[in-house]
Amino acid sequence: MIVHGLNLVYKRKPYAPPAKVTGFQARDARWLARHGFNGARIGTLWAGLTPDAPGQGDPSYLKRWQRVMDLLAGQKIWMQLDAHQDQWHEIYGGEGAPDWAVIRPAPYNALPPVVAPFPTGYWTPEVSTVFDNFWANQDGLLDGWVAAWRVAAKEWKRQPYLMGYDLINEPWMGTEWETCLVDGCPSSYANELQPALEKATRAIRKIDQRNIVWWEPQQFAGGQKLDTFFEKMVGERQLGLSWHSYCPDVFLESQGIPGGDVENCTDFANDRQRHALGQAREMNAVPLMSEWGATDNIRAIEIDADVADRHLMGWTHWAYKFWNDPTTADNAQGLFRDDRDLTTVKKAKLRRLVRTYAQATAGTPLRMRFDAKTGAFAYRYRPDRRITAPTQVFVSPIHYPRGYVVRVDNGRVVRRDGRLLSVQPTSRQVVTVRVVQRRR
């Protein structure tokens, strides 16, 4: 499977999108499927799962997300549950942790909390100390977070089209954050991050042995060329590496800082793709680029999408709707100028994200290329004749104004179901699928 999806993270209380035109309705799920988005990263926040006490699930919150998940599953859209957090909690200008998990450390609790704009709020001594205490399980905070994942796993382990549990978004390693920026802080992985993620994974495995559990590297790994240091978890065979890619030149642009050059992002994206694939091999995991974009810079989006294709990497772009995001480095995030109106979609942005691509391959993917300007698509895979299901290629609805032509070498199209092509091999040779615009 290759996933092309979007982030659905609602960061304001009650931490799930309402059933309104401003939120998420059946028309939104249909819109996603119609444009070939077969994945969604949905923000199932700790603060929503257990708002009142550790391990005490909130039925109303579970119901709010179940409504959305049923709509997504009805369109065959895969879902990654994401324990999103930014700067821990609202009192620091962020969100993620429940109110009961806010235990302000001394001596900072003698004064009102410092609220700094995202992401600089992480760098304050108090927020960094809060994370140190979390990793150390002080006041049982880590246990409380694990208990929230038990609630989620019990509720959704049999959810159709679930692709697993993303344990914590962009983990902040606390007061050693400066070393994370310099060398990736390998000791933080060994002493704090991996033990915490293993603890949550083991708790989930007592409930759900089937779905993927996704681990994220420390936060700076998404925006700098830094190594990450996860190792294999003994006995675990269903791990995922949920990783982010945010080119620093685009971040500088979002902050109004001169000197960035978006063309540098090609080298950055290739480096992050290669590193993610290598780290995934080290930990015996499947990788997914679960966050990228967060910008209206069309060239930056084009670069990331093209490089992901070249590395056969699935992704979930940030973000579907802006939803008045309180923790963002760039207000130009959503796909729409007005969240209430799907006709206000940013067309140039959409043209780079909606792509002809192989969604499911009956064999081994080898090479995939797509030209967002012309619609030209080429895909090669080595078939596995033991698999009877077809390879499925989604054909973009916006790149072929006069229709399209398909050519298959060593295979044939056995079915056209809307925009989905089903391909079967005719030999044991490598299959090549090409799609181009029809000329008239």
Q: Give the C-alpha Rg.
A: 22 Å
Strand content: 15-25%
- Across the major sheet, the strand order is 7-6-5-4-3-2-1-8
Low-confidence segments: none
Give the biggest sheet. Answer: 8 strands, parallel
Oligomer: single chain
Coarse structural class: alpha/beta
> What is the total tally of β strands?
16
Number of helices: 11
Average pLDDT level: 97
Distance between the termini: 34 Å
Approximate helicity band? 25-40%
N-to-C series of helices and strands = EHEHHEHHEHHEEHHEHEHEEEEEEEE
Shape: globular
List the helices and strands and how they pair.
Elements: E1 4-8, H1 26-34, E2 39-43, H2 46-49, H3 59-74, E3 78-82, H4 125-135, H5 141-156, E4 162-166, H6 177-183, H7 186-205, E5 213-215, E6 239-245, H8 248-254, H9 265-283, E7 285-292, H10 298-310, E8 315-317, H11 347-353, E9 357-360, E10 363-370, E11 377-383, E12 391-394, E13 404-409, E14 411-417, E15 420-425, E16 431-437
Parallel strand pairs: 1-2, 1-8, 2-3, 3-4, 4-5, 5-6, 6-7
Antiparallel strand pairs: 9-12, 10-11, 11-16, 12-15, 13-16, 14-15
Helix pairs in contact: 5-7, 9-10, 10-11
What this model shows, in words?
This protein is 29% helix and 20% strand. It is α/β, with parallel strands linked by helices and 440 residues long. The chain has an eight-stranded parallel β-sheet with strand order 7-6-5-4-3-2-1-8, covered by helices on one side. Strands 9-12-15-14 form a four-stranded antiparallel β-sheet, with no helix packed on it. Strands 10-11-16-13 form a four-stranded antiparallel β-sheet. A hairpin with a 2-residue loop joins strand 14 (411-417) and strand 15. Helix 5 (141-156) crosses helix 7 (186-205), helix 9 packs parallel to helix 10 and helix 10 runs parallel beside helix 11 (347-353). The longest helix is centred in the middle third of the chain and has 20 residues, at 186-205. The two termini are 34 Å apart.
